[in-house]
Amino acid sequence: MVHAHMTAWFLAIILFFVALGLHKSGKQKGFKVLKMILRVLYILILATGLGLIFSLANISFLYIVKVVVGLWVIALVEIILGRTAKGENTKVLWIQFVIALILVLYLGFALPLGTYIF
């Protein structure tokens, strides 16, 4: 389950940046298609993440924080794509995205569930 979760969020991050590149190059149809694929990946990320959380015998506060920050990252990806499509300013959202992504990656790899990097 851990590998499915990691694969889903890794693909989502890659497709997020590819979608932004398509929008920047003016390929709106590809941009919209990738937004739809990203939404399917959000469902996979949420399903595998919930599966991981419910497989724990003892859920600590840090796991709850990781879930909340993970939802924050997904929301920021969707908001950044939406505002980019409308041509609005996304500077503050990008700062939040970087902070939230670093935090969720740190918590994901530091907590004792699955892969150990730190």
TrEMBL record:
* Source taxon at top rank: Bacteria
Membrane topology category: Multi-pass membrane protein
Q: Can you name the source organism?
A: Mesobacillus persicus
Alphabetized UniProt keyword annotations:
Cell membrane, Membrane, Transmembrane, Transmembrane helix
Annotated family: Belongs to the UPF0344 family.
For this entry, the protein name equals UPF0344 protein SAMN05192533_109134
Q: Which HAMAP family match?
A: UPF0344
- List, alphabetically, the InterPro entries matched: UPF0344
Q: Name one GO cellular component term.
A: plasma membrane
